[in-house]
Design brief:
GO molecular function: asparaginase activity
InterPro entries: AsnA_fam, Asp/glu_Ase-like_sf, Asparaginase/glutaminase-like, Asparaginase/glutaminase_AS1, Asparaginase_C, L-asparaginase_C, L-asparaginase_I, L-asparaginase_N
CATH architecture of the largest domain: 3-Layer(aba) Sandwich
Order of helices and strands: EEEHEHEHEEHEEEEEEEEEEHEHEHEHH
Strand content: 15-25%
Distance between the termini: 44 Å
Family: Belongs to the asparaginase 1 family.
CATH class of the largest domain: Alpha Beta
Largest sheet: 8 strands, mixed
Number of helices: 9
Keywords: Hydrolase
Bound molecules: aspartic acid
EC number: 3.5.1.1
Length: 343
C-alpha cells in the first residue's frame, strides 16, 4: 500500500514572499495562495499535500508584534494533530524575532515549524522565493520511521536551514540574508539535501505540546556605545513598568567600569529589573571576568546571555517574564538553554 502524502500547513503572514508582480502595471500585489500549485507546479513533485491559511491582512514584518506571534502559535496549536509539518511565510526583517519567540512558546514541539521568506517577490525574474518556499516545504515534510526529522522551529533561507533562535538578519539585499554564527546549519541544500543530524534539537518524547501565550513586553534593549551618558542610561533604567533589559555590551561582555555606570545597573537590579548581558558582536560569547571591564558586571550578578542572539534574548525575557518565573530562579533559568538558543 502506498504511503499517504505528508500533510503540510502553510501559514502566510505577509512579507515580500507573498507578493507577485502584475506585469501589466509593474506593481506588486498580494499573491493568492490558494493558487499556489498553479503558480509553482514544481510543488507537485513533492510527496506532500499542502493546505494554506493566510492572515486576513498580510503584514510587512516590521508591523509584527507579540500578538501576531500568539496568532501563529495558536494556528499551529489548532492544527497540530492534522498536519505533519508547518511552514510559516514571513517578511525577513523580523523573522529571527518571530522564530525565537515561537521556539519558547511551543514547548515540547515534536514537529517542524519552518519560517521562510524572500528578498524578491515570487513572480520576479531572479526570485529567491520559489527555491526558499519549495525547499522549506520539502524540509518540513522530511520523515524517518514515521517521525518528522526536524522537530523544532527553524528558518530556511538561501540553501540553509538554521535553528530559528540562533539566527540574525545580516543583509538587506543579498539573497544570503541570514546568519547563525554560533550554531551550525541544521541542513544544507545543494545537489542533495544534507541534514546535519548531530545538530538537531530533540525534546522530550513523552510530553504533549504546550503552547505559552503570555509574553511581557515591559522590556528594552540598550546598545552600549562610547559616549553613552548617565542621563541616557538612568532614563532607560527608570522607564515606568520596566521589568527586563538586554544590555548589548562590547566583545566578550565588557562595559565601562565607572562607578555611575555600575551603580545605575546595580540599583535597577535591586528594584527587580532583570538585566541580561549580551555581546553586540555578531558571533562569540559573553564571558564575564575574562577582562577587568566585565568583572564588575559579574560581581553585581548581571545575567549572562552567553552566546545568545539579541533576538533570542529579548524574546526569552518576554517569555520568562510572561510566565512569572520567580525572582529567585530567574537568573538560573535564563542562563539555561531552553530550546537550544544558547550553548
Ligand atoms: N520588509 C519586508 C518584511 O520584512 C522584507 C521582506 O519581506 O523580506 O516584511
Amino acid at each position: 500500500m502506498a504511503n499517504s502524502p505528508t500533510r503540510i500547513l502553510l501559514i502566510y503572514t505577509g512579507g515580500t514572499i507573498g507578493m507577485i508582480k502584475d506585469y501589466d502595471t509593474g506593481a506588486l500585489k498580494a499573491f493568492n495562495f490558494n493558487k499556489l500549485e498553479k503558480k509553482i507546479p514544481e510543488l507537485g513533485q513533492l510527496d506532500c499535500s499542502i493546505d494554506t491559511v493566510s492572515f486576513e491582512e498580510p503584514l510587512d514584518s516590521s508591523n509584527m508584534d507579540p500578538g501576531h506571534w500568539v496568532k501563529i502559535a495558536g494556528l499551529i496549536e489548532e492544527h497540530y494533530e492534522t498536519y505533519e509539518g508547518f511552514v510559516v511565510l514571513h517578511g525577513s526583517d523580523t523573522m529571527s524575532y518571530t522564530a525565537s519567540a515561537l521556539s519558547y512558546m511551543l514547548e515540547h514541539l515534536r514537529k517542524p515549524v519552518v519560517l521562510t521568506g524572500s528578498q524578491l517577490p515570487i513572480g520576479d525574474l531572479r526570485t529567491d522565493a520559489k527555491e526558499n518556499l519549495i525547499t522549506a516545504i520539502q524540509v518540513a515534510s522530511l520523515q524517518e520511521r514515521g517521525r518528522p526529522v526536524i522537530q523544532e522551529v527553524c528558518l530556511y533561507f538561501e540553501y540553509k536551514l538554521y535553528r530559528g533562535n540562533r539566527t540574525t538578519k545580516i543583509n538587506a539585499e543579498h539573497f544570503e540574508a541570514f546568519a547563525s554564527l554560533n550554531y551550525p546549519p541544521l541542513a544544507e541544500s545543494g545537489v542533495h539535501l544534507k541534514v546535519n543530524y548531530e545538530a538537531l534539537y530533540r525534546g522530550s518524547r513523552r510530553k504533549a505540546l504546550l503552547v505559552h501565550k503570555e509574553l511581557d513586553t515591559n522590556v528594552a534593549i540598550l546598545k552600549l556605545f562610547p559616549g553613552l551618558n548617565k542621563e541616557v542610561l538612568t532614563s532607560v533604567l527608570n522607564i515606568p513598568g520596566l521589568k527586563g533589559l538586554v544590555l548589548e555590551t562590547y566583545g566578550a561582555g565588557n562595559a565601562p567600569t565607572q562607578d555611575w555606570f555600575v551603580s545605575a545597573l546595580k540599583d535597577a537590579m535591586t528594584r527587580g529589573i532583570k538585566v541580561v548581558n549580551v555581546t553586540q558582536c555578531s558571533g562569540g560569547s559573553v564571558l564575564m571576568g575574562q577582562y577587568e571591564t566585565s568583572e564588575a558586571l559579574r560581581k553585581i550578578q548581571i545575567i549572562s546571555g552567553a552566546d545568545i542572539t539579541t533576538e533570542a534574548a529579548i524574546t526569552k525575557l518576554m517569555y520568562l517574564l510572561g510566565n512569572k518565573v520567580s525572582a529567585k530562579s530567574f537568573k538560573t533559568i535564563f542562563e539555561t538553554s531552553l530550546r537550544g538558543e544558547m550553548s
